[in-house]
Please model this.
Amino acid sequence: MNNDEYIKIKEHAKEIFSDDSHKSRVREIMKNSWDNIRNFPYRDFDDIKKWQLERISYLVDYAYKNIPLYKKKYDAVGYKVGSIKTWDDYDKLPILYKEELIAGFPNEIVKEIDDFNLSTRSSGSSGKFLTLAVSLDAIYNDTIQGYRQYYLQSGNKYTKEDMVLYIYTCPWWIENLDSEYQTSFLPTTTPVDDAVKYIKQIRPSIISTYPTYLNKLSMTGIKLSDYGVKVVIVHSEQSNAMQRDMLSKALGVPVLDEYSSEELTRIALECPNHTYHLEEDACYIEIINPETLKRCDYGKEGVVVGTNLLNTATPIIKYWQGDLAVIDEPIDCECHNNCRVLKEIKGRYMDSIKTPTGEIIPASAFMDIAYNWFLVFNIPIHGLRYQFVQENTRELNLYLIKGLFDIDLEKIKESVYLLIPKTMKLNIMIVNEFPITIGNKYRPVISKI
Ligand SMILES: [Zn+2]
Model:
């Protein structure tokens, strides 16, 4: 499927969703199950785990019986229908990698080719796209979990009369339930001054966007609190707590993170007390040791691997998400969420910087260092942009887009050498554009090793 064909499919999907029967279906689910969905994060944790295992058991059998990729993959480990009865059974399933989904496209990763009429896409490594089919039920439930997200992240200040503004690449499938749960959409290509005018006009309660776009908004000097905004949600690109705190002070509203992916949907949401609670009914997440491929205990760092609990059109089971993080057991948070807690999300394992002696320095460490430049040089967060790129273990390239500011390159160098050994060469280059962009997402640290 080439890009033009994909755009055609997306347009067709838009037509499918112009039919009001989908809103009626969501409304019906809301009527029957809203209390259940709304209260899921507050359930007893043993209850949550029991529900997850049942759902996973169903999904694995479904994938094995209907999706060629899984049939092959699970036959190879001697899988039999009905054999996921305990978490130990789940541990025995092989991990699924992005490359397998790309290679299996289109026939091996769906039951029927028409399933791609509803699909989602993300960029893969080596520039290839990953295209996944999405089931209608998944879209309905994802929509409703989205409503719940607004309640959770606004600290229950959100109401169904409130407007949510997405500044994103494409609008969500279901844009409103008529006068309730209304959303509005601006593409990320919108000039920032136009976005400011639009925000003043429609007064959204929640804005959901990329951190890069929020930086641009803050540069205009707008106080979002003056225009009725209750909370801003950032996603898709890695941001750190200090950066969000700085944006929050500039904009006059809380700025909270959504950790999500096209493959797994919502993985974890930052609550108003700055704890990341897993979205345990959207996906099941575990942390896997990248060397042994065994599940890590609570508190141990490893790679995020997850199963999408919503989608059956292209099931995503035990999928290598690739970010480094830590999971802890549920904590006594003021928001009363009982789901497990995700900590120290350190960006992609693949994008960790490797030293000549084999030491691994996570991407997040470089983001923390960069934040300190803003403090040292008193540069507003949006004034200086950077990208670290590593091509081999002997050196590290740092690209800087200066903006209006004079910077002391020696000081920057010194700070980076607090992280990397003196045996590595650091090349600093002032540029007008970053050498690597993937889709339209900004990635601060990239490893090409
Ligand atoms: Zn919380």
Remarks:
- The CA atoms of residues 9 and 117 lie 6 Å apart.
